Amino acid sequence: MKLMNYKTVFFKYLIVAILSCISMANYAQYNTKYGDEKYEPRLGQSGKDVIWLPTNTDLVTQMLRTAKVSANDIVYDLGAGDGKIAIAAAKDFGAKAFGVEFNPEMASLAQRNADRAGVGERVKIINGDIFKEDFSSATVLTLYLLPELNLQLKPIILNMKPGTRVVSNSFHMGDWEPDVEIGNPTRAYYWVVPAKISGTWGVYGVHPTQKATLQLVQYQQRVGGTLTFDEKIYPIMKPSLEGEKFKFSFQDKDQIIHDVELNMTGDTASGFDRFDYKTSKLVGKKEK
Length: 288
Ligand SMILES: C[S@@+](CC[C@H](N)C(=O)[O-])C[C@H]1O[C@@H](n2cnc3c(N)ncnc32)[C@H](O)[C@@H]1O
Fold this sequence. Notes:
Blueprint: H1 2-31, H2 57-66, E1 74-78, H3 84-91, E2 96-101, H4 104-116, E3 123-127, E4 140-143, H5 147-158, E5 165-169, E6 180-182, E7 188-192, E8 199-204, E9 211-219, E10 222-229, E11 232-235, E12 237-242, E13 245-251, E14 257-265, E15 268-275, E16 278-286
Parallel strand pairs: 1-2, 1-4, 2-3, 4-5
Antiparallel strand pairs: 5-7, 6-7, 8-9, 8-16, 9-10, 10-11, 12-13, 13-14, 14-15, 15-16
Bound molecules: S-adenosylmethionine (SAM).
S-adenosylmethionine (SAM) binds near residues 47, 50, 84 and 103.
């Protein structure tokens, strides 16, 4: 009985300690100054389509790392807030970064934050509406919006250049399944814009003399289909599409597994068929 009391008291203290830590963290967050002498935004203040809340700094790093952001990238943060994602993309990953922010005071603050961080040359905050600005030059898009805003952006994003990487803090993209999920406790989701490869392709190199026909059906990055040559139809196995990179396997009539890798650019395809310690070069063209 005495032991029980010690245990109860211990757990009571433990719970009080945990709650104190949580409230201290919240207090710290809500008392952090995000602005400067010209403008002081409030956490949760309203925005045109969504309130302002900054992405947690660790998650910003994880999001940009997952998207493999580098100096070759043009990153657009849609709904840029105080600019922290665009600034991190430029400062920590060497990218050129843009932020689109509707609130003019917030946009100016974000640009001043970029200047203060020493990356004003590589970060441009555009005071505009994410539904009106042209972000088609982005190689990486970051979002912390709302599910319905992601859904409105989805058709625009799916029409961007294949290979464009997209990372969204907290919110999905409807039935477009993410390729990767990251973050704990707050989750973020990662997609790569898939090339449009549905249709019939003629491929040379699978068979020594004949053209093979690759027939593909696609929904977003999910692909299925068949490869036909020598009057035989082979189902494609383990298909994967990442941007323009399309990989699949098939088993030929002698039970040999072929691993095919094709780069699908517009209506041309090129790559390799690796099988039985051999490699055959492939070239293809979309026929319909
Ligand atoms: C949740 S905050 C995210 C801020 C920043 N991306 C981050 O993750 O730290 C969303 C931001 O989008 C802005 N916003 C809301 N609707 C917008 C719109 N239609 N166009 C541009 N910015 C918008 C808000 O003012 C707010 O700063």
